Amino acid sequence: MAISASLSAHHVFVLISLERLFSSFYPAYFERHSSRALAFALAIVFGGVSWLYSIACMTNYFSSIAEEDFVPIFNARNESNTQPFQDLMIVTTASNAFSLIMLSIDLYLNFIRQPADNSTLAVSYQRSENRRILLTILPIEFSD
User: Does the record's keyword annotation contain Cell wall biogenesis/degradation (predicted)?
Assistant: First the structure.
């Protein structure tokens, strides 16, 4: 369960990073059209799907649940768990690589690149909010 929760939390942070990336490219549009309900629904879907996928990998794609003496302990040394474990590690590695690339782009767009001077108050506010959120998730992304 801890692996599932960790993977789900990581994917929610990827979603937050995607949101910040979109708001970096289109700050005025994002300021007018952002939706908390959509963000919450996407976070629930991302977390649920990644949790369900990791549980599927840990139970040998749900075939272990049908056994009467099933004990939900994930052991990578078990021969029947080898392929699902490798699939889970590939997905986790790809997700981490994608997350680091996205975080690098976010950092470049919000901290290194010089914005245009003729920005409105809404755009300036959106940029400062991006910086604040990125500074919050930066240590979490690096440690994840």
Answer: no
